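Subject: complex prediction, re-run

Hi both,

The earlier run crashed halfway through, so I resubmitted it with identical inputs.
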Amino acid sequence: MEVTRPALVFDRVGYAYQEAPREAVSDISLTIAEGEWVGVTGPTNAGKSTLCLLAMGLAPHFFGGRLKGGVTVLGKDSRQVSVIERSAEVGLLFQNPFTQVSGARERVDDEVAFGPECHGVARPEVEARVAEAMERVGIAHLAARHPMDLSGGQLQRLALAGLLAMRPAVLLLDEPTSQLDPAGAAAIFDVLAGLHQRGTTILMVEHRLERLCELCPRVVAMAAGRVIADGPPDEVFNREAVQERVGIPVFTRLARDGALPRPWPVRVGDAATAFAKSIA
Amino acid sequence: MPEIRLEDVRFAYPGGVDVYPEPGLTLALGDGVTALVGENGAGKTTLTKLLIGLLRPRAGSVTVQGEDVAKATVAAMARIVGYSFQNPDDQLFERTVRAEVSFGPRVLRKPVAEVERGVAWALEACGLKGREEVHPHDLGLSERKWVAIASALAGEPQVVVLDEPTLGQDYPSRERLRSLVAQLADMGRTVLVVTHDMDFVGEACSSTVVLSEGAVRYAGPTAAAFADRDLVEEAGIEPPHVTSLARRLGLGDAVSERAFLAALGR
Amino acid sequence: MAGGLSLYAEGTSLLHRAHPLTKGVLTLSAIALAFIAPSLWWVVGILVVLLALVTAAGVLRRFFAVALAILLPITLLLLAVQGFANPLNRTVVFALGPIVYYREGLAFAALAALRIACLVSATFLFSFTTRPADIAEALMQRGLSPRMGYVVQSALQIIPQTLEMAGRIQDAQRARGLETQGSLPRRARAYLPLMLPLVLSSLVATQERAMALEVRGFGLKVKRIARYEFFDSTLQRALRWALALAVPGAIVARVAGWR
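This time it finished cleanly. Structure:
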C-alpha cells in the first residue's frame, strides 16, 4: 500500500511576530494531505493570515519573530528552506491584486513569465508554462495588454497565473477574493476548482462562509490564534464554539432561527431540502 | 422630499469615455438607507464623488440638500456629506483614534461642544468606546475601517456615504453596521451605501439603486430589486443568499432573513 | 498613456532597432562633444546630425512639440539676459529702449542655447526610440544585477501608481473638509494629512510587493537567461568604440589648442 506523504504538517506550531507581546498562533497541529482543498476561516486576528505566512515560510524568514514547533511542507522543514527556494513548489496569493504584480513588465505574458525567469527556466519552457497558466486562469486574450490597464479582478487572475507558471504542488490563498466584485470572485473560484481537480493542494483563507461551504470538503475554524474546529463544513458549523466565535453561513442561521432540527444545513441545496421537509 | 438629486448628469474622465451615456444620469434619493450596487466600472464611485464635489459634472445638475454641488467647494459639501472611503489607510494619519475621528469637525471649525458631541456619538456607534487613545495603526483592518466610518459621522452630516463598509468585516461587525445605518435612518439622515455585499443590502437597505454601464437600471424598494432575473444577470450582481433559498422553496423573493422567516410562518 | 511613465514612441526605424547600448553611447557622446566643442559651427554640426537622426527615426513632429516647449523659453531667456549683461560685452548690435544688446553676449547665449538644444535632442532621441524595459534588459545582459535591473524597470510603473495613491489620499482628506489649495498656511496645514498616509501606505505597499516577489523566487542565484536578443553588429560595435574614444580625443584636442 502506497503511503502518500502529507503536503503540509503543522506540529504544535506557535508563532509571535517581532516585538509582539502575544503569539499570533498557538499550539497549531494540522495535517493536510496532498490534493486536499482546505478552507480556513475565523474572526479577525484569528491567525489565519499567519497560517499562510507560516506555510510559505515568510514567517519566520521575512518577518523574523519567534517560531515554536515544526512546519513541514512537502517533506521539508520550513526553517531549513528559504522562501525563494520554496517558490518552485509552493505559491501564495495575497488579498491585494495591485501589489502582487511585479511592476517591472509591460505585457501580461511577460509578467506571467517573471517567476519562471527568476528560476532560470529555459526560454521554450517558459513560453509553454506562460501559455498554460494564462489558459488556466482565462486571461490568454489579455496577453499583450499592459498590467496597469487591468481591472482588480483581472489583476488577481494575472497574479494567480504568475504563481501557476511555477506549477506549484501547494497553493496558499489569503482571502484571494475579498477585494473583488462577485464576478471577479467567481472567476477565481472557478480556477481553483479546476486546480483541485488536477490534484493541487489548496489552503484557502476565506470570509464568505457560504462559498467556503460550497467549495471546501474540509474547513479549519480558528479563533484567537488557535484551531477550534477541523472537519467537514457540516460538522464544523454545527459546533457551538464555532457558531459563537466564528459565525455561520446564512443558511445555517436560517435553519437555526427557523427551528429546524439539528444538525443544521450549511449549503443552499441541503437547506432547501431541510426546509422543504419541514414545510411538508 | 429628495435629499439628493441628479439630473441628466454627464461625466467623463480626462481621455476617457462618458461614464453616463446619453441622456445622462437622473436619480433622486430621499432619507433612509439606499444601497448602490452594480459591477465595478458601472459608475458607482464616480457618482459618489460627484455628490461631494470631488468631481464636477460636464452637464446636468447635482443637488444635495438643496445645494448645487457645482457651485460649492468640496469643503462646503463636507459639512453636509460625510464620506467614508473604501480604504481607511487613505486617510488615517493622526496619533490617536479620538484625534482621527475629530479631525473632520475640527477642520470644519465647528464649535467645541458640537465636536465633542459628534465625536462621542460616533465613537459609541462604531464600537470604538475604550479605544480612543489607541494609535490607529495598532488596530486591525476591521477596526481601522470603523475609525474611518466614525470620522465621517463625527461631523453629524445630514447625508452619509459609505463606500464598501462591509469589506473585510466579520458578522458581528456587519450587524453593528446594520444597526448603525438603521439608527441614522431613524434620525432622518440620508444614507447611501456602495457595496457588493448583497446580504447586507437585503438586511440593512430599504431602497436599492442598480447601476449598469452608467445607467440606472432600477431604483426602488430593495424587496423588489432582484425580481427581474435578466436585469440581475445583466447588471452583474447576484441576489442575497436568503433570496436564493426562498426561491428554491417557492417562498417568493424574501431579501432579508426576517422576511424569509415571516414567509415561512415562523 | 497606458501603463507606466515613458516617452517611447512605437517605430521600426534603424534607430528603434539598434542596440540600446549603441543609442546610450551615442546620446552621451553627443552631449559630451557638444559641450567640449569650442565654437558655434561645431555645435551646429552636432545638432544637425542629431536632428537628422530624429527625422530618420520618424519622431520629428513629436520631438518638435516637446523640444520647443523646453528650448524656446530657455533660448529667449539666455539671449535676453546674456545679450546685455555679459561682462565681455563690447560691440553694440542693437538697442531696445534703454537696454543695449552686444554681440559678445548674444554669441555666448547662442552657443549655450545650441549646446542645450543638443542635450535635449540627444536625450529625446534616446527616449523616443528605446523602450525603458530594453535599457534594463541590455544592462542586465552585460552584468547589471537583477535587483538593480528590477529597480529601474519597476520605477516607471511604481511612480504613476504612487501618484494615483496620492490622488486618492487627497480626495479622501478633501472630502473631510481639508483645504489643499490656497494660501501657504493652508497648504502647510494640509501637509501632514496628505503626506503621512502616503508614506505609510507606500511602506505597506512596498512590504507587500517584497513578499510577492519572494514568493515568485526573485533573488534566486541562477544564471540569468536573456529574455530576448538585441540586434547588434560589428558596425554598431565599431561605432560605439569610435564615439566613446571621440570624447577623450576631443578633450585632448581642446587642451592642445583646438579653437
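Chain B has a mean pLDDT of 92.

- K.
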